[in-house]
Amino acid sequence: MRRPTPETPGPGQESVWDYPRPPAVDPSSERVIVRFGGVVVADSTRTVRILETSHAPVYYLPPDDVDAAALEPIDRRTFCEFKGAAAYADVVAGGRRAAAAAWWYPDPTPRYRDLAGWVTFYPSKMDEVTVDGEVVQPVGGDFYGSWVTSRVVGPFKGGPGTQGW
């Protein structure tokens, strides 16, 4: 499959095709708020963006900025060739449940050790996720939990027909 043609970034934008592989860890002071079931389940200005070629960023939040009571760990595990084994949780708040909607790396590979225990969310499974007040758009498909904002341009890996990129 041919590599797609990257979109040209405008002022203040980044192309996901300029992100590295293996992924970069980029500390961010942008305010991230995650809402589910009418409840704020996470709120942070101490996030980390994971930036990987062709992927919209994924924001990870420090555990202290996530409502631990809203996370119910489940048996699901996946493996990232770079970060290692991921653990998952259902998000439960406001009388609602979103299955396997949050994940983290309990014991990441050495390159990503500072990410240990930091939590991220599938925007598609939350009521609303915002970055500095902008509502995040989920990337297509349900495998990647990328966060699309006006700050980044694609095309983005994750939607139908992008598996071979």
Give, in order, the helices and strands: EEEEEEEEEEEEEEE
At CATH's second level, what is the architecture? Answer: Beta Complex
Share of residues in helices: under 10%
Give the strand order of the largest sheet, numbering strands 1, 2, ... along the chain. Answer: 4-3-11-12
How many beta-strand elements?
15
Distance between termini?
7 Å
Number of helices: 0
Shape: globular
CATH class: Mainly Beta
Task: Give me some keywords for this one.
4-stranded antiparallel sheet, globular
Detailed description of the structure:
This protein is an all-beta fold and 165 residues long. It is 0% helix and 42% strand. It is built from no helices and 15 strands. It has strands at residues 14-15, 24-28, 32-36, 39-44, 47-51, 58-60, 71-80, 84-93, 96-104, 119-121, 128-131, 134-135, 137-138, 147-148, 152-153. It has a 4-stranded antiparallel sheet with strand order 4-3-11-12, with no helix packed on it. It is globular and about 45 Å long.
Task: Note the topology.
Elements: E1 14-15, E2 24-28, E3 32-36, E4 39-44, E5 47-51, E6 58-60, E7 71-80, E8 84-93, E9 96-104, E10 119-121, E11 128-131, E12 134-135, E13 137-138, E14 147-148, E15 152-153
